[in-house]
Amino acid sequence: MSDVNMKNSILRAYAPASIGNVSLGFDLLGAALKPIDGSLLGDEVDIEIAEQFSLVVKGRFADKLPPDADSNIVTRCYQHFIAELEKQGHPKNAIPALKMTLHKHLPIGSGLGSSASSIVAALFGLNQFFAEYFGKAPFTDNELLLVMGELEGQISGSVHYDNVAPCFLGGLTLMAEHKEQIALQLPMFENWYWVSCYSGINVSTAAARDILPKQVAMPNTIQFGRQLAVFVDALYRKDEKLAAAMMLDVIAEPYRKSLLPKFDESRTFSEQHGALAFGISGSGPTVFAVCDNLENAKIINQWLTDNYIQNDTGFSHICQLDTSGASVSHS
Ligand SMILES: Nc1ncnc2c1ncn2[C@@H]1O[C@H](COP(=O)(O)OP(=O)(O)OP(=O)(O)O)[C@@H](O)[C@H]1O
Ligand SMILES: N[C@@H](CCO)C(=O)O
Predict the structure, then answer these.
(1) Which positions does UniProt annotate for ATP binding (predicted)?
(2) Closest CA to ligand 1's atom 6
């Protein structure tokens, strides 16, 4: 796009909600979500050329964020991105100032990867914007993912990619954390539905990490390793039953479920109504139930809506995996 056209256009980046851990892969496995009814479940960031940098925050959950732009992770993404461009040798006066608008659609501290969604939309959007402006993307996907993990770490107190990676790449992702390959995309069963219910309360990721023990007992370590290895093998062999049987959380759920009213009843109902697996999405309070048919997913979605949601902020969606991940459009 020419310089003149870019001055009159807005690039919009979208980044979907995600389930961190997926029960059996603490910090190592994540899944991107797409509601089957077409509703939007992810943040959007608009980017346009301006006289000076500014961040505007809009959307359903805008008022739940700190009011000053400097505390918003999107501003930090912008500052980090521009500093990296300068390190690459782009002179300051060759980099246009930008107005960014965050449409904050995901609740904060929800377990749906809310900060990750803002980070991915901001950084992916900036990379796409400058790809058009300079004629070449400043960063590769892997370089971008490394920065996304770093910024997520600034918020939650430790670098973990299990929200940013699926949100960016789409589908089900396994962290390799090798400097040249941070994340791998795994196959998934297309007939699986992921009922995802946010109760409406706020659980801080940092606080939900603090309550976990610093050491894991030997039997749990062996079960964790066995489950993750067998799960990946079962995905590649398309063995649904075995894959689902591995979806148990021996690391975080036993400690975190005490933060989640009605967690045990929700699991019991879901399992009695055909859920193949049930667990905490990321650090909660969102829970998810996996079903292999829409009828069961609908029954569980209705029950969770009626029983797990605590207030007007909560919601529940029947989802499939969002295999596209982050995307951009122009207006
Ligand atoms: N754009 C943003 N989106 C979300 N949180 C942000 C953003 N900018 C700053 N923050 C701050 O980052 C912190 C995010 O907390 P936390 O990691 O618990 O939530 P989260 O990322 O929304 O969690 P989850 O992954 O469970 O959805 C909050 O203190 C919030 O005010
Ligand atoms: N893996 C992270 C995800 C946070 O959303 C955790 O469980 O703390």
Answers:
(1) 107-117
(2) 115
Q: What are the residues whose beta carbons fall under 8 Å from the beta carbon of 254, sequence distance 6 or more? A: none
Q: Would the ipTM clear 0.90, i.e. be above it? A: yes
Atom 28 in ligand 1: which residue has the minimum CA distance? 108
Helical (H) or strand (E) element with 173: strand 172-178
Q: Where in the chain is the domain with CATH 3.30.70.890?
A: 193-321
**Least distant ligand from the CA of 249:** 2
CATH fold for domain 3-186: Ribosomal Protein S5; domain 2 (3.30.230)
The reply to whether 281 sits in an annotated binding site is no
pTM of the model: 0.96
Per-residue pLDDT reduced to its tens digit, 83-129: 999 999 998 889 999 999 999 999 999 999 999 999 999 999 999 99
- Whose Cα sits closest to atom 8 in ligand 1? 72
pLDDT score of 5: 67
Distance, CA of 19 to CA of 188 (rounded, Å): 14
Q: What's residue 137's pLDDT?
A: 94
The C-alpha atoms of residue 153 and residue 27 are separated, in whole angstroms, by 12
Check whether 10 is labelled as a binding-site residue.
no
Residues of the chain with CATH 3.30.230.10: 3-186
Statement: 193-321 belongs to CATH 3.30.70.890: yes
